[in-house]
Amino acid sequence: MTNVVEIRDLSKHFSISKDKSLKERIVNFGRGKAFREEFWALRDVSLDIASGTTVGLVGPNGSGKSTLLKMIGGILQPDTGTVDIRGRLAALLELGAGFHPDLTGRENVFLNAAILGLSRAETEKHFDAIVDFSGIERFIDTQVKFYSSGMYVRLAFAVAVHVDPDILLVDEVLAVGDLPFQQKCMDRIRQLQHDGRTIVFVSHSLDQVAELCDRAVVLEAGTVIADDVPADSLKVLREEFDQRRAADLEKQLAAAAAARARLGGAEGADWPRIESVELLGPDGAPVRQVGPQADVTIAVTIDAPRPTDRLSLTGGIANALGVTAYATNTEIQQASLPTISGRTRIDFTLADLRLVEGNYSLFAALDAHDGAQLDQRRDQTPFVVTGDHKQGGFTWARAQVSVAQA
Amino acid sequence: MPNPHTAQRAALLAAEPMRPAGPRKGVRGGVVSALRDLAAHRELLGMLVRREIKARYKDSALGMVWSLGRPLAMLGIYYVVLGQFLGAARGIDDFAIFVYTGLTAWGLFSDAVSAGTGSIIANGGLVKKVYVPREMFPLASVGSALFNFGIQMVVLIVATAALGHFPTGARWLYFPLALVVILVYATALALFLSAANVYLRDISYLIEIAIMLFFWVSPIVYHWTFMATNLPAGWSAGMRSAVMDIYLANPITLAILGFQRAFWVAGDTHEQIADLAGRLGIVFAVGVALLWLAQRYFTRKQADFAQEL
């Protein structure tokens, strides 16, 4: 294993000094501490990244992902610890950071490529490919200030992926452009992976991380809380998010209940909740293992302490990476729920479900009529879909290969 | 599964030594590695200069002709108001050439310093998002000022020819000498001030005033001897020569005198400053030392640019 990035005991703190002008500095002289706010963006982070791997940095807002990426890119300097790299590095932290609105697309391609470390001769070599990739040939000699934001990011992304880096840092920029362009970007990223380049990227799209990365590093308040294959790391993060969400929900609903109580009602914390999510076989008994073609029922039990109407329930199946493999909802099914009171079981019966083999789990979410989420459950009732180890992807099919002269 | 490309690239990379991300810290090898960094990015520097020039006059019908507008207007004002109304031209032959020479030299210095001071902040978007040697930005300001200077120089040379006083012979040697003095000081100041300005934004306002002040301190619209002849009559000879020594120690004053020696042919009949070449040589040497200090300061401060902006 050849490491291209080695981070040792890296810490970074920011002190935001609020007095910038001379006057304020003189007025506040000697009281400097009181006018400074300090926080640790990163604390004792150690990380090795091997050549040819794709690493996703994930975590809630403000957890230090972007700071870490900037430290690897050499844009920020460590307070303590070291960041060592080798090979050519290109940072894609903001698309079109180097674009000048008054210059034409062509001029900006050369400028931006130079900023990313490409020589003029190399840029000329790639120029046609860049323009072709961006798909805006017609506007290449127009000043970029007249570009739509989509054209802008297309051109910027096209330049960035044609720079020939050993390490590519990407910050939350893959979700640009329209769908065909996004797919083009993803294809290009896979191509870069295939070339053996190292990609480190920050994303809030966990599905994207699950899809692209070999490894996911979860940051939380400046420290690494998980560093593993995406399936396991993302599980840690999802739990973290669910906890936050649950805490938020608790607060919201408590506030709503308090408001109701003030208005005269004597109700306490009495909103409906999901009690359990079960997977049942055709005979109504719980199952933990099903075949590729299965008839199953997702049974959700709700407990409503007082009668509640117009609820909407979502039930579904997630694969091991947490990606939704199947989902449905009472509203989509046009099965409006009656007024629910007390413990009630709602069944989604799925006939002839064809999932590819693997580990799955159930999830469910309960929404009020105004769209507010009342409760949600994830990673319920883990189960296995068995198969013949002959297929990949999401769904199962009866497959057959035949060859004939065309 | 490991594919052959991955293994190949990993093997190539394994041969490379690890290096710290970002700019190297400390004095050790600082200047050498900074110069190497700059050499590696010289194409980018060229493009940044071109960007500044192109973007400045984009969309204007006359384009670069406008870079002559300001100096020509100033020339007109000084020639008419100072030269004719106030009589400054009476003691100075070819007053127009004299003023324009000074304005051209001063323009290079003041453009480079004032644009350089704001360069890091103006390029904040880039500084925060991409790592390039940050010296690029003040240097690009100097480069763009140099370009404007070139255009004005062409006009100056054409004007000397038109007036029949085209400079010839060894006087041309003063031109490169004075030019490098201005460039060294402008670059040193641009580096120092651009870094300082990130931490204390007041610098850019202070510089505006200082530039205006030093315009009048320098012998641009008046002959340097006016300084000596207009000192208060009561001052002793020692005091006078001390003041004149300080006055003539200003490197930009000396550089402007160098420009005038080169291009203001009619000035040969006026009093000449003694040993101008030697003085320029000394301030150049001092300037190189200051440039080194400014670069050290810049290197030390640039580590935190991204978080201060």
Mind sketching the topology for me?
The complex is a heterodimer of chains A (406) and B (309).
Chain A: E1 3-17, H1 22-27, E2 36-50, E3 54-58, H2 65-72, E4 80-85, E5 89-92, H3 105-115, H4 120-134, H5 149-162, E6 167-171, H6 179-194, E7 198-202, H7 206-212, E8 215-220, E9 223-228, H8 230-262, E10 273-280, E11 289-290, E12 293-308, E13 312-319, E14 324-329, E15 340-354, E16 358-367, E17 373-385
Parallel strand pairs in A: 3-7, 3-8, 5-6, 6-7, 11-17
Antiparallel strand pairs in A: 1-2, 1-4, 8-9, 10-12, 12-15, 13-14, 13-16, 16-17
Helix pairs in contact in A: 3-4, 3-5, 4-5
Chain B: H1 4-14, E1 19-20, H2 30-40, H3 42-57, H4 66-85, H5 95-117, H6 119-122, H7 124-129, H8 136-162, H9 174-199, H10 202-217, H11 225-229, H12 237-249, H13 251-263, H14 276-302, H15 305-308
Mean pLDDT of chain A: 84
Q: What's the CATH H-level homologous superfamily of the domain at 3-88 and 165-228 in chain A? A: P-loop containing nucleotide triphosphate hydrolases
- How many domains of chain B, as an integer? 1
How far is it from the N-terminal to the C-terminal residue of chain A, by CA?
46 Å
The count of helical stretches of chain B stands at: 15
> Which range does the strand content of chain A fall in?
35-45%
Biggest sheet details of chain B: none
**Residue windows where pLDDT falls under 50 for at least 5 positions of chain A:** none
Helix content of chain B: over 70%
Task: Examine the secondary-structure arrangement and name the CATH architecture of the domain at 3-88 and 165-228 in chain A.
Answer: 3-Layer(aba) Sandwich
What is the H-and-E element order of chain A?
Answer: EHEEHEEHHHEHEHEEHEEEEEEEE
Give the total of beta strands of chain B: 1
Dominant shape of chain B: elongated
The overall average pLDDT of chain B, rounded, is 87
Oligomeric state of the chains in view: heterodimer
CATH class wording of the domain at 3-88 and 165-228 in chain A: Alpha Beta
- Tally of DSSP helical segments of chain A: 8
Element-level helix/strand string of chain B: HEHHHHHHHHHHHHHH
